[in-house]
């Protein structure tokens, strides 16, 4: 049914792709070519349709994105009962962790992110409204953050037969409470976020970037397009690309990435320092991996739990060094 609705031709092979953390994805080899099929689980159909139009515009502007294939009725999505599917041409390349990139490719990635930000802000090309209000920075205070940890600990305590993961989670949550209490005076203030803002991708981790022969062939998974401070996306991208899953940051590559971004779009040292500190505190006060596991029953991010806590401890001990790396190119 999918191949007929999207005009893919006769299906020859379907391969499930287990790498995705949120949505479910397949590769379809069909008579008319190779395609990626996504079953949406983490974004509404309305948002996915809007994002599909954005991708079409970005592709027309020459950026490395995969514009969706339209159905025979001209729609971006195919809805079958409660499920919605999106198809795009298959993009060749491999997911390469940022820590494995040569320094010049880390610089190129920063320049590409800045170029994407500029393109998303071009209302004449991209069907997104101009942001009409500066984003406000939400901050979870120390007491609230400790209360979240206590709630999760209570959930674990109520388990009839806690397993190895649960015991590890219990220990890490207690350690987090101690860390929060020690650094409670460093919590940033809520209010309007500093620096320039605009439309951003929202999740530029290495799993959402394909590479081939030293260049980016496709930026994937645009489910989280949103208006944010640009410094927030720069800081988060550097964190998830350059060591966030290894318990430490590769500060040399962070600096190269940030310098590449600033070569295209100016971003002051103060504005980016503010974004970095806010991201550090967000990691300190957020429990999304635990909440996925215990509240949603979603074990996809389980493998990130221990290493994320390791990164938080490493970062907390080296905040000045991290800030200095993010000053590159300023």
From TrEMBL:
Name under which the protein is recorded: Homoserine kinase type II
SUPFAM superfamilies membership: Protein kinase-like (PK-like)
Family that this chain belongs to: Belongs to the pseudomonas-type ThrB family.
GO MF entry, a single one: amino acid kinase activity
Residues of the Aminoglycoside phosphotransferase domain: 14-266
Alphabetized InterPro entries for the sequence: Aminoglycoside_PTrfase (IPR002575), Kinase-like_dom_sf (IPR011009), Pseudomonas-type_ThrB (IPR050249)
PANTHER family on file: AMINOGLYCOSIDE PHOSPHOTRANSFERASE DOMAIN-CONTAINING PROTEIN, AMINOGLYCOSIDE PHOSPHOTRANSFERASE DOMAIN-CONTAINING PROTEIN-RELATED
UniProt keyword Transcription present: no
Domain of life: Bacteria
Keyword Transferase: yes
Keywords: Kinase, Transferase
A family per Pfam: APH
């Amino acid at each position: 049914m999918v191949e007929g609705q999207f005009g893919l031709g006769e299906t020859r092979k379907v391969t499930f792709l287990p790498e995705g953390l949120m949505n479910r994805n397949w590769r379809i080899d069909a008579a008319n070519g190779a395609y990626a099929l996504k079953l949406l689980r983490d974004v509404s159909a309305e948002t996915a349709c809007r994002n599909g139009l954005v991708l079409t515009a970005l592709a027309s502007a020459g950026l490395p994105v995969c514009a969706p294939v339209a159905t025979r009725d001209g729609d971006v999505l195919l809805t079958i009962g409660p499920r919605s599917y999106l198809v795009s041409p298959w993009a060749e390349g491999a997911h390469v962790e940022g820590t494995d990139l040569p320094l010049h490719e880390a610089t190129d990635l920063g320049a590409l992110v800045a170029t994407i930000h500029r393109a998303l802000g071009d209302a004449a090309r991209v069907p997104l409204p101009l942001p009409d209000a500066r984003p406000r920075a939400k901050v979870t205070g120390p007491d609230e953050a400790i209360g979240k940890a206590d709630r999760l600990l209570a959930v674990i305590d109520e388990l009839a037969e806690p397993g190895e993961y649960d015991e590890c989670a219990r220990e890490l949550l207690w350690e987090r409470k101690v860390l929060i209490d020690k650094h409670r005076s460093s919590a940033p203030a809520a209010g309007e976020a500093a620096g320039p803002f605009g439309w951003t991708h929202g999740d530029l981790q290495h799993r959402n970037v394909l590479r081939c022969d030293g260049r980016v062939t496709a930026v994937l998974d645009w489910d989280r397009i949103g208006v944010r401070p640009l410094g927030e996306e720069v800081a988060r991208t550097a964190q998830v690309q350059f060591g966030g899953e290894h318990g430490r940051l590769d500060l040399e590559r962070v600096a190269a990435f940030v310098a590449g971004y600033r070569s295209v779009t100016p971003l002051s040292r103060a504005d980016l320092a503010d974004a970095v500190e806010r991201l550090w505190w967000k990691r300190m006060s957020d429990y999304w991996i635990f909440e996925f596991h215990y509240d949603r029953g979603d074990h996809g991010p389980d493998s990130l739990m221990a290493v994320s806590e390791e990164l938080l401890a490493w970062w907390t001990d080296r905040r000045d060094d991290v800030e200095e790396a993010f000053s590159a190119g300023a």
